[in-house]
Amino acid sequence: MSGAGVARRYWMTRETLKRIYQYPFIQMGCQMVLMRCAEDNPVLRTLAALNYTFIRVPRLLGRTKDAVVCTRSP
Question: Residue 63 gets which letter from DSSP?
Answer without folding.
Answer: T
